[in-house]
Design goal:
The structure is a homodimer of 457-residue chains. Chain A has 457 residues and is of the alpha/beta class. The first copy, chain A, folds into three domains: 16-79, Winged helix-like DNA-binding domain superfamily/Winged helix DNA-binding domain (Arc Repressor Mutant, subunit A, Orthogonal Bundle), CATH 1.10.10.10; 116-353, Aspartate Aminotransferase, domain 2, CATH 3.40.640.10; 358-456, Aspartate Aminotransferase, domain 1. Helices cover 36% and strands 13% of the residues of chain A. Chain A has 13 helices and 13 strands. Chain A has helices at residues 16-29, 42-49, 53-66, 118-131, 146-160, 175-187, 200-208, 249-262, 320-326, 339-347, 350-374, 402-411, 443-456, and strands at 69-72, 76-79, 169-172, 191-196, 212-217, 232-235, 265-269, 294-299, 311-314, 381-383, 391-396, 417-418, 430-434. In chain A, the strands form three sheets. The first copy, chain A, has a seven-stranded mixed beta sheet, with helices on both faces. Chain A has a four-stranded antiparallel beta sheet with strand order 10-11-13-12, with helices on one face. In chain A, helix 7 links the parallel strand 4 and strand 5. In chain A, helix 1 (16-29) packs across helix 3, helix 4 (118-131) crosses helix 10 (339-347) and helix 5 (146-160) packs across helix 10 (339-347). The longest helix of chain A is centred in the C-terminal third of the chain and has 25 residues, at 350-374. The N and C termini of chain A lie far apart (78 Å). In chain A, 51% of the residues are buried. Chains A and B meet through helix 1, helix 3, helix 4, helix 8 and helix 9 of A and helix 1, helix 3, helix 4, helix 8 and helix 9 of B.
């Protein structure tokens, strides 16, 4: 008989069968119940411990499930070949609590978290939680919360000139998911055209899929229609990423016409077009699309907060049923909790007010950054005043090696990013310089510090 | 002079420059201002309209930005080659409002949304919004909300036997993101071993990366250590997906030891181990890992709600700084809004209570489903009573073609899934039959209806 004395007690809060499991596990893993030993019959152990036989049977079932013991038909239950169990050493030496890294000065493409209306947002979440509690967890539709889709359609009409219905809106976990879903669905093993320089994750995604990638060189005002139009063309027409140019209306029309003739598609990545600091936002390319060849992709990461992880696609009407079919079992990756609150925030007008306020603040910062950069000596390089977006692309003409400059800048606390990794075709050298997270009065010093690093590199 | 009469009015709410832009856009796109036409000087148009000259300059800048006109240095501003603009037809024929498809009877692997404690969850969100408003939008750490990470570490100790600190926890947008991050980081261009049958998205991910994939055949109790150990081995030890077996402790130890000798890694996908209906959950493999070779991946999609899109990885201490370095600029894809509320829900004990309640309900449904399936004639096939998880794998032995059966079942309103697409190595035929979303008293009829479809196929 096994000695489990003192290990099983009817007075413990732990169920008896769990105590028996724990006791036998310990005996087995410390080796005092050797490999191949036969466990006592459930009847015998029950008698010995003074417990019901079913209690022991439950304990044995658990040990068999865990692989500490095995049943041999007609012969009984035997101990398996378990090595002595050393517990993980993790608790003994927990990793140091690393401070999250600071974002870095002049980080491009990132909104200022201080500008986010955190308290109004929390009030809005709280109101929805009280008035409409089920909306915070109930995902009625894989395309996203119906009210949020309605608000996005209205917003796209108001700010981007796009006439669409809520049915065309697909809520995603960000622009990137929307872009990848659209590419995956539309390329169909054919070719894709991507701007260079351009968005690296998209380039990597296309390469990993094994598609033929055609590079569209982004010039001062964007890319030109190539002789050979690809099945899918991905453009950033309102504000070329990362150079900043705006694709003129005639070129937009030419792309749309060429897509139609090719039986192809345009994916419009409209990541930060709300932030134009002179005049109004340029209307979206999808607003010029009479034949439904353009899939529009927008995001809340730039205008609102990256932390909410929400973006969207607006599909041409004819594509809606086909995308629906994609989501019969799974759904897009957008978490539900923030969706109805965001719809309420938009419906109340607070979202538009927030964008106007952010645009005003970023316009000041853009102006301060552009003024400071204009003072850099010509031999270092040049930039174009696109008066829009969340970064300035500074083209280096002197000593290149933008990646080395950015590494040195990172050591000095800067978040500026190199241009060349975004340009697999030509490796143009440059710096992407943000300004949205800096106070206007700090920008001259921050940019002067960066200039010293560039000059010394 | 261009005739803009009646199109620009000081009494309109719209800013004057926007009215001028709109009027000129219309004249250009309808063709009454032809290609190459020179626009009047800003001074002349301003005089003509009786507005300030800067108003016209702003309007012209906007038209140039949009590409309706272009500046020729020293010559003036000229109309570009814009085709007549036909607005998108979308609003005229919006796509029909498609009802989201019903989930289908006997859908495998999906929790019952009715079991989700939606009202307590909403109260919890509301309380956090009032007490700690900034936590709903402020992402202090790319690894996730610090309080949620602490709660996950405590939960992993309580339910899965894993000793770890909050520093080791990385919050992700779901198990899949955690698995993909871990694979991407650890494979390093070498090989990966995956179970068959297994989780299709992981198989596709590895194939798209171009890695050498070694298949581990999942037997009744899981996979055996192969002669050639891969750099990374992905296992579902507590409850093999989709067959349901539990990897015995000796095999777990053998895998961990082999990974150590190979200088490789085990990724433990522990997707639904909380749902064991006999005895306790089997402790995690990571709980047996003294040398830090095992990355544990968990999810809230099965236990709580897929709609929150939250999962996590628990990293061995030595990997924490390396994963930290991955997230200096971007962060993992988990949305912030639900994180602190989930931490509060866990800290209050409500989460554990919810799991116990769900386990009780699913245990009844499992028993009803297993009883109904046990009545199927032997010639159709067989299943093993693993008494765990959120689906039963029914192995078809008669006339195979599980995909055809599932298509026919889908037409009859079933959500059952075929086994063969999950098994690229052997194409074993079977049905994955869910039970969590059905009421126990409905299960006999639902399973009888499925039996008729299988018999007729």
């Amino acid at each position: 008989m096994i000695d489990l004395s003192g290990m099983v007690s009817a007075n413990s809060a732990e169920p008896l069968y769990q105590q028996i499991v724990a006791a036998l596990r310990r005996r087995i893993s410390e080796g005092s119940l050797g490999i191949g030993a036969r466990l006592p019959s459930s009847r015998a152990l029950a008698q010995d411990l003074g417990v019901a036989r079913t209690t022991v049977v439950t304990a044995y079932d658990q040990l068999v499930a865990e692989g500490f013991a095995e049943t041999r038909r007609g012969a009984g239950i035997f101990v398996c070949d378990v090595a002595p169990i050393r517990p993980p050493q993790a608790p003994a030496r927990p990793p140091p609590a690393l401070a999250p890294p600071a974002p870095g000065m002049l980080l491009p493409g990132a909104p200022d978290p201080e500008v986010f209306p955190a308290r109004s947002w929390a009030r809005c979440v709280s109101r929805v939680a009280r008035m409409d509690p089920l909306s915070l967890s109930h995902q009625a539709d894989a395309f996203g919360d119906p009210e949020l889709r309605r608000e996005i359609a209205a917003y796209a009409a108001r700010w981007r000139g796009i006439g669409c219905s809520a049915e065309q809106v697909l809520v995603t976990s960000g622009a990137r998911e929307a872009l990848e879903l659209a590419m995956d669905f539309l390329v169909e093993g054919e070719d894709i055209a991507l701007e260079v320089p351009g968005f690296t994750p998209t380039q990597r995604f296309a390469a990993a899929r094994g598609w033929t990638v055609r590079w569209l060189q982004a010039k001062e005002r964007g890319a030109e229609v190539p002789r050979q139009m690809a099945k899918v063309t991905l453009l950033t027409p309102s504000h070329q990423f990362p150079l900043g140019g705006t694709l003129p209306v005639p070129q937009r029309q030419a792309f749309l016409q060429a897509a139609k003739e090719r039986d192809g598609w345009i994916i419009e990545d409209d990541f930060d077009s709300e932030f134009r600091y002179a005049g109004q936002p340029v209307p979206a390319m999808a607003a010029l699309d009479p034949d439904g060849r353009c899939i529009y992709v927008g995001t809340f990461s730039k205008t609102f907060s990256h932390a909410l992880r929400l973006g969207y696609a607006i599909l041409p009407p004819a594509l809606v049923p086909q995308f629906r079919a994609l989501f019969i079992h799974p759904s897009a990756g957008a978490a539900i909790t923030a969706q109805r609150p965001l719809a309420a925030f938009m419906a109340s007008g607070q979202y538009d007010r927030h964008i106007r306020r952010a645009r005003r603040l970023y316009a000041e910062r853009y102006a301060a950054a552009a003024e400071a950069l204009a003072a850099w000596p010509k031999r270092l390089g040049f930039f174009r005043r696109h008066t829009a977006g969340m970064q300035i692309a500074f083209h280096l003409t002197g000593a290149p090696a933008d990646t080395r400059i950015c590494r040195r800048a990172a050591e000095a606390g800067y978040g500026v990013r190199p241009l060349s990794p975004l340009d697999p075709a030509r490796h143009s050298q440059g710096l992407l310089i943000g300004f949205c997270q800096s106070r206007p009065d700090a920008l001259p010093d921050e940019i002067a510090g960066l200039r010293r690093i560039v000059e010394e590199s």
